[in-house]
Design a protein that fits this description.
By secondary structure, the chain is an alpha/beta fold. It has eight helices and eleven strands. The chain has a six-stranded antiparallel sheet with strand order 4-3-6-1-2-5, with no helix packed on it. Strands 9-8-7-10-11 form a five-stranded parallel sheet, sandwiched between helices. Bound molecules: flavin-adenine dinucleotide and NADP nicotinamide-adenine-dinucleotide phosphate. The site of NADP nicotinamide-adenine-dinucleotide phosphate has 19 residues, from strand 8, helix 6 and helix 8.
Length: 275
């Protein structure tokens, strides 16, 4: 594992709320990934020194530095970007994010450059159905932003629905980015209406946003009505990411609607839990 760990430098930071922020880091030349994958980030750069010392057979290496402070992080940026972007929650007493929140431009982080995860569009066998539904809560938006910055996603599906649920309007991050993707990639594929963005805000009324949880919206047909397309076993791929309760409840709702889990490339539903 130590072979894969590199230091990366923080290049920018965007604070959305006291509990949500994004940041970019330098991208090692050799680092490759597929849109939708995640990596492991570490907050203590002195760990690198520890790994290097162990590899060099240095018996004075301080194991106290080797705390387990790595966490899984989905990549927001596209596989073609020069930098790597992440979108993070702050859990005030969380071992990782209580430190990560203090990150400043110029600081170093550890990156395990082995990408993981099967929440990628490559998991689906061809022929592809016409519609792709991407359903996220909170920071679970991250892998979908990466997919939406890959032209192939736009070329492969007739409609892409992105439904993104947050507690409050200020936690609905990246809305301007989503709108610019709609315009930029929509123009590239000659269909500005291809990406249908459905914001959901559950704990305060917000004009233009839906307000119920995803499973209810699906079972009542409100989400399909808002998207203007049906969810159907023959026409739909659905990806879920974020809160594990949302993933479980939404999976059950989708099964009630006749969709099935994707296994060995076949089937509609693919999921990723964040905790
Ligand atoms: C495959 C995968 C990808 C992930 N990608 C991201 C990502 O892109 N951005 C991100 O912020 N986190 C992501 N996570 C979660 C991340 O790995 C850590 O759990 C998170 O950084 C909190 O770490 P912590 O040590 O501070 O708290 P932990 O001890 O890890 O978590 C404490 C509690 O905080 C809550 N929690 C943890 N993560 C989140 C979250 N993202 N949103 C809301 N509540 C949460 C849960 O209730 C959890 O039990 C991902 C997890 C997995 C498994
Ligand atoms: N967000 C904050 O203000 C805040 C502040 C401090 C700490 N935290 C910590 O962060 C974590 C939560 O972060 P978060 O707000 O990003 O995530 P979250 O609780 O997962 O909320 C994000 C969205 O997911 C929805 N959701 C939750 N459970 C669902 C389910 N079973 N089915 C469908 N939708 C569901 C929420 O709706 P509902 O609103 O209906 O739940 C909300 O719209 C918690 O561990 C909390 O302790 C959050």
């Amino acid at each position: 594992m130590s072979d894969n760990i590199q230091t990366v430098t923080v290049l920018s930071k965007t604070t959305w709320t006291p509990n949500l922020f994004s940041f970019t880091v330098s991208r090692p030349d050799s680092f490759k990934f597929t849109a939708g994958q995640f990596v492991r980030l570490g907050v203590n750069p002195s760990q690198l020194k520890y790994y290097q010392q162990i590899e060099a057979g240095d018996e004075t290496a301080d194991s106290a530095l080797n705390e387990d402070v790595f966490r899984a992080y989905s990549i927001v940026s596209s596989p073609f970007d020069e930098v790597i972007e992440f979108f993070s929650i702050v859990i005030p007493d969380g071992a990782f994010t209580s430190q990560l929140q203090h990150l400043q431009v110029g600081d170093e982080l550890l990156l395990n450059t082995m990408p993981f995860g099967f929440l990628t569009l490559a998991r689906y066998q061809k022929p592809l159905p016409k519609d792709l539904w991407l359903l996220a809560t909170g920071t679970g938006l991250a892998p979908f932003l990466s997919m939406l910055q890959d032209l192939k996603t736009w070329e492969d599906y007739e409609h892409i629905v992105l439904a993104y649920s947050a507690r409050s309007l200020d936690e609905l991050a990246y809305v301007e980015k989503i709108e610019s993707l709609q315009e930029d990639f929509g123009t590239l594929v000659d269909n500005p209406a291809k990406l249908i963005f459905i914001p959901i805000v559950t704990r305060e009324p917000v004009e233009g946003a839906l307000s119920e949880r995803l499973p209810k919206l699906l079972l009542e047909g409100t989400l399909q009505e808002r998207a203007g397309i049906a969810l159907d076993i023959d026409t739909t791929h659905v990806m879920l990411c974020g809160n594990p309760d949302m993933v479980e409840d939404t999976k059950e709702a989708l099964k009630t609607l006749g969709l099935v889990m994707n296994r060995r490339g076949e089937g509609n539903i693919a999921v990723e839990n964040y905790w």
